[in-house]
Amino acid sequence: MSDLREVSEVTDEEITATVDAVLQDLASEAYPLAKGWILDLVAAVAEHKASQDALLADRDAYKRNIVRTAILMAHPVKG
To answer: Is the pTM of this model over 0.70?
Structure first.
């Protein structure tokens, strides 16, 4: 199970918003989630080689799915 879903304080809608944030601008290192959780978007992508490659692809659905996987595998911290 992913770290974000394991804490179960983060909804699917928030995960989708996080993916949108990555696809818009990967500059955010401290992305706020619900109930004080924070996720480093740059680190999430850097730790997931497939998402780095996907961000260079022209296929939007593929890019979104791979980045979502990276986000789900990321390690949020309590802020």
So the answer is: yes
